[in-house]
Structures are given as structure tokens and as C-alpha cells.
Amino acid sequence: PFQKLPNTPSRLTLFALLYAWANLLHQLSYPEWIKGLQLIGWLLFFASGFLALRPSSYPLLIATLILRIVYTASWMPMIRGHLFIEGLFSIGILLALVLKSQELRQYSRFTNEQQETLFASFAPFLRVTSLIVYAAVTVSKLNTEFILAEKSAAVQLHLWTASKHPWVPTGAWAQQVSIWGTLLFEGGIPLLLLFRRTRWVGLILALLFHSLLGVLPLRVCSFTLVMCLLLYVWLPAGNPRKIHASFLRFSEAIKLQPFHVMILFYVIAGLTGLLYSGRFGFNLEMSTLDVGMGMWWWQTLVMLAALWVIRDLPREKSKSMLHIRSWPLMLYAGFVFFNCLCPYIGLKTRSALSMHCNLRTEMGYWNHLFLPESMRIFNFQNELVSIITSDLPDFAHLQKTGMPLPHFEFRRWCRLAAQDFNVTYRDPSGKILHFSKTSGQPSDSALVEASPILEWFLCFNPVGASHDYMPSLTQRVGPARNIVPHFDSNAAPSAR
Predict the structure, then answer these.
(1) 304-347, pLDDT tens digit by residue?
(2) In this structure, are residues 118 and 12 in contact, taking their beta carbons and an 8 Å threshold?
(3) Which residues on adjacent β-strands are paired with residue 435?
């Protein structure tokens, strides 16, 4: 490995490298696995680190995929949307690789040509997935509240950004730009990707757009790399050759062997992250998220440079790029689409690519501009609970904000609350009832009876929550960062 890399890497190798980076950023951004000493979290972190050093290793890629899927499953159902969607399409990648490996009757030490075949087995699925993702987030924002500045999640995020960066304008025109600009980018990028003549523009805009999201107060830099995984499969087939040639020329220019350049990059990126995290002092309270942010800047610059290097490569026709040849993978792509339909058909409202969009699909609250309420065929969003009084902060917050909660979710919160509490509530039939937990024992055992299979998949936000609402006092919830503060768009911060 300390000699020049003799062979051009395959697209599978470069994808594995991006996959390793994404998972390292996930683990640094959501460090509950460190505090909780979770074995699966540590295994995923080290597997991703080794894969970042040896992206050509097929066994390492398979191991990291499996660990990512298991880790996602362990955080279900209260998991951030972008972490869930990566776990979701990781299953598709693993399925495609296993099927193709069996077809090749080989499971390691693939030639470069065979690695290209393996990449081609899941690339169409990921392209279709990327279109589903962009379509889902765009359609979910086409509702009466998202386009209304006083309520729009886009404006709330814009005002939050302005509170951190005083140079950001907050006038009425800027609020409108945040709404329609979001719709334009998220709805326009997939259209640009579909056509050969505009695909290059789409890739550049997508990388810039998602990089911008990474520097907002949400600091979802790991989300950027999830989208980069979906965007990479749209690059021209010859991209590894040109990127590799440019990398070798750069190595020669600075008189270092390629492997040493890679190590140097990781050292510089890691030190940048440590310096950024320690800007207020070096101690045990330093944020691993800030470490990841420092590394993420370098990764983004490298990806922009790679896009520039391959700018003149010929582009393939979309029809062939979207052709999924494996029927199990076609069925699974249908499941990914089904997951995005869940809010509209009456199933879950979390991890369905409908965060930060103001979408309401519950009975009596439906607000979509053109999708009809008749789409709702399941009853989970019909049965709503309103909190009257409670000494549990999570329920007290719902009472204060006037947000009802689906009865299915109310039962989960009652069962998993980590402290004793009392709550008076109005049930779906309109009756006023009381529930308490004393010394861990519920006053009504039937109310807190678990539904393990359903609860593992279904999870609901309070009605009106524009982001993935994380109850703070329930046990075994997923990564709980990034609660978006609420601003009055007519007041704070002052318009400028």
C-alpha cells in the first residue's frame, strides 16, 4: 500500500470511500454510541474507518453495510430521517451485491471489471431512490402552511440561521426566497439529473445546495454525505479513471506516494476538526459533531474538485441509467416509495422524508395543496389525544403548544417515560381521562401494552410539528439532536 496505486479504482471503490465518509460523519454527529458504550456503534465506527483506508476491500464494504443496517434497526423507530433513509437504501445495496456475487460465484478478490459489474447491480436502484427522495421532500412541502411565511418551516430555519449570522437578511422578500428557493432546488435538481444536457448543472447545484444545508444551524453535515452517495451514481462511467489520473498527478507534484497523500489528508482533516471542536478550549466536553464538521469541509472541497476534473466526460442516457434489472430490487424500490407514502395513507409521519415541511395529514388537519384526504386508508392518524394537564415535560409541551398526539404514539410515550408522572387527557372519543405512573407502575396497564412489531416501524410526530420531534424523557430513543427553535416570523430576529 505504500507504493503508487497501480490500477485505476472502480466506481465501487469510490462509492465505498464515500460510504465510509458518510458513516464516520454520522457517528461523530450523533455520538450516543460513545456515551452509551454501544458495541454496534463502536464496530460501525471502526469498520467505517478501516473502509476509508481500504475502500477497495469488498469484505470491508459488506461488513460496513451490515453494521449500518443493524445500527439503523437498533435505533428504530425514533431515528433521524436521513439516517433512516441511508439504512433503507443500504439494504438495497447489500441485496444487489449478494445477488450479483452469487451470480458471479465469487465473494472476494474481484477484478476491476467485476467490481464495475457489482456497482452496476445497485446503481440504477440508487438513481431511482434519489428521484424518490427528491420527489418525496418536494411533494411534502406543497401544503398550505409551508408556503405561508408566518408558519413555514423554511422561514423558521431561515430566521434561526439569521439569529446565528447577523448578516443574513430577514425581510419579507428573504423569507419568500427561503420558501420558493427550497421548492425550486429540491424540485428542480431531479429534473436536471434526468436530462443529459443538464445533468452536470444538476450535480453542481445539488452539491452546493446540500453543502449549504450542512453549514446552517442544524449542522446536518452527515445529511450532505448521504445525498452525495445518491448523487455519485449519476456521474459518468469513466469518472474513476480521470479522478485517479488527477490524484496521481497531484501526488507527483507534491512528491508523495498516493497512500501517503491519503493519510496526510485524513490527518489534516482530523486536526482541522479537533481545532474547530477545541476553539473554546480542549476538554472532555468538546463536541464530536464539531470534529466531524471540520473534516466535512475538506471532504466537500475534494468532491467539488473531483466534479471539476470529470466535467467533460460523456453522459449516459437516463433510460439505461434507471433500468433496474433485478426483480427483488425492483420490489424493494417499491418499498422505498411506499415508505414515502406513509403520511398520506394514514401510517407513520416520522422517517418518511416529510421533516421540516409543515405537512399535516391527520384527520381534521389535512393541509396538502393537491393530494386528497381520501388517500388516508389507515386509522392511526384518525385517533388523536389532546393533553389537558401533565407534570411530564414532554406532555406539558404538547399542552402548551396545543399539539394533539396520535393515540398510538401517546401509548408509547406513557409506557417509555423514564420518570413517574401524571397526565390528564382527552381521548379520541372525547372523554377526559387520567393516567399516572407511580414507582414505575402504570395506573392502566392496558393503555401501555406494547405492540413491538408495529412500534418498531410506526412512529408519529405531534400534529403540527414541522420537524422530527424527539421526546426528551422517553427511554431508548434514537439520536436526539437538532430540535429546531420556533421564531415569530414577524418579530425575532428583527427584519433587515
Answers:
(1) 888 888 888 888 888 888 999 889 999 999 999 999 999 999 99
(2) yes
(3) 423
What are the CA-CA distances from residue 282 to residues 29, 141, 273, 276, 285 (Å)? 18, 42, 12, 10, 8
Do the Cβ atoms of 309 and 246 come closer than 8 Å?
Answer: yes
- Report which DSSP code applies to 204: H
Helix (H, G, I), strand (E, B) or coil at 183: helix
**By the 8 A CB rule, do 341 and 127 touch?**
no
Closest by CA to 68, choosing from 299, 51, 386, is 51
Between CA 385 and CA 435 the distance in angstroms is 13
Task: Report the distance separating Cα 269 and Cα 273, nearest Å.
Answer: 6
Listed residue (228, 330, 317, 181) closest to 14, CA to CA: 228
- Name the 3-class secondary structure at 46: helix
Written as nine digits, the cell of 250 is 497531484
pTM over 0.85: yes
Q: How far apart are CA 282 and CA 17, in angstroms?
A: 30
CB within 8 A of 280, min separation 6: which ones?
none
DSSP codes joined into one string, 410-472? HHHHHHHBSS-EEEEEE-TTS-EEEEEEETTEES-TTTT---HHHHHH---PPTT--S----S
Q: Give the residue among 227, 204, 258, 188 at the shortest CA–CA distance from 89.
A: 227
